[in-house]
Amino acid sequence: MSYTQFRNNYLTEAENRLAAVNISTATTNELLAAGALYKMAAAIAEADLIGPSALRLLELMSGGQLQTWLQDAANRETFERILSSPEAMRAVAASSTAMQAVAASSTAMQAVAASSTAMQAVAASSTAMQAVAASSTAMPMQAVAASSTAMQAVAASSTAMQAVAASSTAMSALLANSAAWNTVVASSTAMQAVAASSTAMNAVLNDSVARGALWASSTALAAIQNAPAAVIDSLLTHPRVSMMNNNPSNLTSTFISGKSMTLRVRNTGGSDTNYLRDLAGGSGSGDDVFTTTTAWTTRVRAYSNLRHYNWSNNYPFQAYVVNMN
């Protein structure tokens, strides 16, 4: 008999016995017994349905066994009650064995992703997120990405996003869902994790929809601006990145048509001032001014029809530019 079946059977029997008690004619002992039964029934009705036995049950099952087990209505009810209990889910999320089973069952993952209580526990646990993000299949992360409830929890958790950003499989599943990715680019916490991972950033630059959302988000651009130098270094050889190079002294301006994003800029002829701007911005608007020595400076900006502009002289400069189209 499952935990849920015992609970339901007990409460039904208790209700029947209490209904049979005639308060006006019952003896003292009968009233004491009825009161004790009522108290016990109330405790069982309100009790957290997770117990050590429920956690052990999950730990003893493989993903396939859990998938089969959840086809039974009573078992599914037990699992749903586990998901609704913060204490229960903290225990499940802390167990790598239990989470491996959950992550390998599509029914379990869909239920977890739909539960805000469950996802809060999963997103806060590196053990749980490792099971989801590092799975050999995309299914667990696809379930998370398909749920707005799940993505809100994941995007708000640096622990969760670090696990996702480190996994090419998880990033592919995330980027395949535009709504999920939009949640990420709107979150500074989530984007800090993405920007700190060369795995994640390479995946983003390889995806046209993801690039568009990134280019349009000031939150995302700010996170990349503060990315570790090693991550920016790794992106400079990406096929999407090219060098915008203005070395000839007689070149007055340089254009790159379409959506662009700068990564690094430098002057090659000393501390002269250079300007990059949106072509559509017009004179005196949209300037990105950089006055540096020959050292590279990380400057992440989004442009539409990027233009190099100088006021009076032709200053040599270089810029790493990402084609975001």
Summarize the SSE layout with pairings:
Layout (H helix, E strand, L loop, with lengths): L2 H17 L8 H19 L5 H9 L2 H7 L3 H11 L2 H8 L2 H8 L2 H9 L1 H8 L2 H8 L5 H7 L2 H8 L2 H8 L2 H8 L2 H8 L2 H8 L2 H8 L2 H8 L2 H8 L3 H7 L5 E6 L7 E14 L5 E6 L9 E4 L5 E13 L7 E7 L2
Antiparallel strand pairs: 1-6, 2-5, 2-6, 3-4, 3-5
Helix pairs in contact: 1-2, 3-7, 4-7, 6-9, 7-10, 8-11, 9-12, 10-13, 11-14, 12-15, 13-16, 14-17, 15-18, 16-19
Please tag this protein with its features.
single chain, six-stranded antiparallel β-sheet, alpha+beta, 3 domains, 20 helices, 325 residues, 6 strands
Structure notes:
By secondary structure, the chain is of the alpha+beta class. It has 3 domains: 3-46; 52-235; 241-323. It is built from 20 helices and 6 strands. The chain has helices at 3-19, 28-46, 52-60, 63-69, 73-83, 86-93, 96-103, 106-114, 116-123, 126-133, 139-145, 148-155, 158-165, 168-175, 178-185, 188-195, 198-205, 208-215, 218-225, 229-235; strands spanning 241-246, 254-267, 273-278, 288-291, 297-309, 317-323. A 6-stranded antiparallel β-sheet has the order 1-6-2-5-3-4. The longest helix is centred in the first third of the chain and has 19 residues, at 28-46.
